[in-house]
């Protein structure tokens, strides 16, 4: 959910939380989840240099005016006033989420989005207090978190999806990610979800394909273990979970507090309930990433494999 219109990236139909005009729709969404017995948080994001001028309505903004492979266009460098405005926009997004009935917010600090861009030396070439050392490159993230926390109060859940590595030459690496994670934990973050990769990371991107065997699952676990060793807050890990046994082992044996999934739940929204009811067969998601294409072409994502199966069944 983008916090400013200029932060819109990837999908034409991606949601925004930058205006109170959306209140009723978001309230309805939160109520629907609660009525079904669920809990729901909103992810707050800004595409930064990964934004698209067609969707965002202006030249993308990034920590530095550098064209790297993960950017479609040359971005403009954020001014300090624009940095402050963006920090405030994250806080306003959190305020709205809380007011509209959501149970928490997650900051998107992974996959090449703006917070990740500030952390990464590949995309952050600044020479002021926001660039250079990891202490400076972490400054934007920590200022966002503190502003959000001051806005929503001490008891409202605020967590983060954090890249532990960009998997790119010259990009963010685990030691710097550990530093950022420790600072977040010290500042009071409620949980850290560990991920890795950017749109330019190839086979080591965020949403890897062909996760068809258990040994290919949990591909971010080694990175998550490094962070877990260094922080005193809950840590969750995302990345290729498809089978119950791997998910259970990751928590019981590897010490993770939570696991996270996305694509399997697009394919099979009732997966967790199926596992709870005793059917422990793997998720039916084949990790083809075709679910993202409708988001580009039609405005919303769905499992195209499931749609084809339904259409075939309807004809038979």
SSE string: HEHEEHEHHHEHEHEHEHHHH
- Which spans of ≥5 residues are poorly predicted at pLDDT below 50? none
CATH topology: TIM Barrel
Q: How many helices? A: 13
- Structural class by secondary-structure content: alpha/beta
Overall number of structural domains: 1
Quick one: biggest sheet?
A: 6 strands, parallel
Q: Proportion of β residues?
A: 5-15%
- Proportion of helical residues: 25-40%
* Strand order of the biggest β-sheet: 1-4-5-6-7-8
CATH class: Alpha Beta
State the end-to-end CA separation.
40 Å
User: What general form does the structure show?
Assistant: globular
Radius of gyration of CA atoms, rounded to a whole number: 19 Å
Report on the structure:
- The protein is of the alpha/beta class.
- The chain has one domain: Aldolase class I (TIM Barrel), CATH 3.20.20.70.
- 38% of the residues lie in helices and 10% in strands.
- It has 13 helices and 8 strands.
- The strands form 2 sheets. The protein has a 6-stranded parallel β-sheet with strand order 1-4-5-6-7-8. It has a two-stranded parallel ribbon with strand order 2-3.
- Strand 5, helix 7 and strand 6 form a beta-alpha-beta unit.
- Helix 6 runs parallel beside helix 7.
- The protein starts with 22 loop residues before the first helix and ends with a helix.
- The mean pLDDT is 95.
């Amino acid at each position: 959910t983008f916090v400013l219109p200029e932060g819109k990236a990837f999908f034409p139909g991606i949601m925004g939380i930058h205006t109170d005009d959306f209140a009723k729709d978001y309230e309805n969404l939160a109520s629907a989840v609660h009525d079904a017995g669920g809990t729901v948080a909103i992810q707050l994001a800004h595409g930064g240099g990964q934004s698209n001028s067609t969707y965002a309505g202006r030249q993308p903004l990034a920590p530095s005016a550098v064209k790297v492979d993960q950017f479609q266009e040359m971005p403009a460098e954020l001014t300090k006033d624009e940095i402050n405005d963006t920090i405030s926009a994250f806080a306003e997004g959190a305020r709205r989420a809380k007011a509209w009935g959501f149970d928490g917010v997650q900051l998107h600090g992974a996959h090449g989005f703006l917070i990740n861009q500030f952390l990464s030396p590949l995309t952050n070439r600044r020479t002021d207090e926001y660039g250079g050392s990891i202490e400076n490159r972490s400054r934007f993230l920590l200022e966002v978190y503190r502003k959000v926390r001051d806005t929503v109060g001490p008891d409202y859940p605020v967590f983060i999806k954090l890249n532990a590595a960009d998997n790119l030459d010259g990009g963010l690496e685990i030691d710097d990610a550990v530093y950022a994670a420790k600072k977040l934990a010290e500042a009071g973050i409620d949980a850290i979800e560990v991920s890795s990769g950017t749109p330019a990371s190839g086979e080591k991107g965020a949403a890897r394909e062909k996760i068809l065997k258990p040994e290919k699952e949990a591909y971010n676990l080694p990175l998550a273990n490094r962070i877990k060793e260094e922080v005193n807050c809950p840590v969750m890990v995302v990345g290729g979970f498809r089978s119950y046994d791997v998910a259970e082992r990751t928590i019981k044996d590897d010490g993770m507090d939570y696991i996270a999934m996305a694509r399997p739940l697009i394919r099979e929204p009732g997966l967790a309930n199926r596992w709870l009811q005793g059917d422990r067969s793997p998720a039916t998601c084949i990790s083809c990433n075709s679910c993202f294409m409708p988001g580009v072409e039609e405005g919303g994502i769905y499992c195209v494999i499931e749609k084809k199966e339904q259409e075939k069944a309807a004809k038979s």
